[in-house]
Amino acid sequence: MDKPKLTIDEMAAFCKRKGFVYLNSEIYGGIAGFFDFGHLGVELKNNIKKEWWKTFVHQRDDVVGIDGSIITHPMVWKASGHADGFTDILVDCKKCGSRFRGDQLIEDKLKIETAGMSMEEISKKLSENKVKCLKCGNELSSPKRFNLMFSTHVGPIETSSSAAFLRPETAQVIFANFRLVAENARLKLPFGIAQIGKSFRNEISPRDFLFRMREFEQMEMEYFVHPDKYDDCPLIDEVLDYEMNILSAEMQKNSKKMQKLSVKECISKKIIKTKWHGYWLAQMHRWFVGLGADPSHFRIRQHVKDELSHYALDTWDLEYEFPFGWKELQGLSNRTDFDLKQHIEHSKTDLSLFDEESKKKIIPHVICEPSQGVERAFLVFMFDAYHFDKSRDNVVLKLHPKLAPVKLGVFPLVSNKKEIVELAKKIHNDLKECWTSTFDTGGSIGRRYARADEMGVYACITVDFESLEDNSATVRSRDTTEQVRVKISELKDVLEKFLKGERLSKLGKVVE
Ligand SMILES: [Zn+2]
Questions:
Q1: How many domains is the chain built from?
Q2: In a domain, 176, yes or no
Q3: Are residues 362 and 457 in the same domain?
Q4: What pLDDT was estimated at residue 1?
Q5: Are residues 226 and 364 in the same domain?
């Protein structure tokens, strides 16, 4: 297991230097927890979202999508529990006024892992240990609760009834629309409703670059099952042999190390309580690995009793080993019928479904709620793709071809021969119809290859003097630097196969 080669700050610097991510409004000093995506960043981010949607919506018959609004009726947050319960512990310095999150202070000052600690425990630990200000060392205020929702007002005049909130999660919009979506799409249980969109959390201290932000994007799904068919997962065979690093609540209690186990073992040993949960954990894990992430950097960890949310029966986190430790990528909660019941009660609207079999109305259970931050996925793919190649003396960003922001680079070998430049440009324009492509005439060909490697360009096509004679061009692989000579008329076919994972040396005449 090799750890990520960069620190999070080095990754932030790389992302800025190559045009992936910038601190928002940096010319005014920036604003903590908000980031802007540059030309490569937006391409990567869009590719991540596209792949997620393709895998979990387009390629499934049991999932449909929605796109809800960011501001929603404030009663939604009353019903969901966010208005009263979505809080963090805040302490501030009595002298310098610096503000800190309670759990972060405990981790930084007392070096104690806070995953699994309740709000009460965090408060107690802070008071007991008389933790001091991280900045100036002075005394801190007593811990208080702080709601993480951003508030705003709807309409021109601020009144007590005009208050509204930017959504802190996408899930509730799915619940509020549940009945309409289910009926319109004629969905039969079990089924899922998915959504990708922005969410906002007014974090006390955003940090670790894209890891903890105030504005972020979620790729989320609520998967509903019949309340009596919790363990009836007709799709489980697809994942039974799939293996993952597992860290159960039991293992954590006994200070045991994580263990590589198959889904089959987890279910038969009752480590994972329901088949549906095992199924979705494996699907989410497999999505990352299928897009090039290194499985040794992942584990699934069960929440211990104290960290279970108010609504959850069982929660597993998919975690990744970041340079700053194992951190949550997504939490997969079994939310039961908590949310639908809350909305039924608060809205006085019937959100139940009619069960043909029992001829009764039922309220489905959310067996699992895979919820993935787009930016956290972005970080995972960047960390696992980043390689410094000593022999090339440059960074090679080995992003999966489906994720690479720019798939192709087209270069005329020299920039002072008109016919070569024109032919290269023609090829570039032609390829752009199918893939993202960059056209680069600046500097030596070696320099241009290095630049392309750092952007993650999957294949480079070079047009040279010979091309004018033999109507061929050289195709170079980013990952192996292998080069083959290919007829220009066959370029599209060859590139299509190469981008799908075939070896370049099998697709053309190898250049020695
Ligand atoms: Zn202070």
A1: 2
A2: yes
A3: no
A4: 42
A5: yes
| Gap from CA of 22 to ligand 1 centroid (Å) | 29
Last residue of a domain, one of 367, 382, 397: 382
Taking the centre of ligand 1 as the mean of its atom positions, its distance from the CA of residue 92, in whole angstroms, is 8
Query: If you ran DSSP here, which 8-state letter would residue 305 be given?
Result: G
Contact 388, 469 (CB under 8 A): no
85's CB contacts (< 8 A; 6+ apart) are 310
The whole-number pLDDT of residue 397 equals 98
> From ligand 1's centre to the CA of 97, what distance in Å?
6
Give helix 374-385 / helix 39-53 axis angle, nearest 10°: 110
CB 316 within 8 A of CB 281: yes
Ligand 1 centroid–CA 135 distance in Å is 5
Domain containing 432: what range?
406-510
Which residue spans within 81-237 are E strands per DSSP? 87-92, 99-101, 144-147, 151-153, 163-166, 191-200, 215-225
Ligand 1 centroid – CA 140 distance (Å): 8
Provide the token pair at 396. Answer: 């090679």
Looking at the structure, tell me whether residues 423 and 378 fall in a common domain: no
Q: How far is 23 from 404, CA to CA, in rounded Å?
A: 22
Of the candidates 155, 153, 122, 154, which has an alpha carbon nearest to the alpha carbon of residue 140? 122
% of the chain exceeding 90 in pLDDT: 78
Q: Which range among 99-108, 206-215, 421-430, 463-472 shows the weakest confidence by mean pLDDT?
A: 99-108
Q: What angle do CA 274, 278, 279 make, to 5 degrees?
A: 110
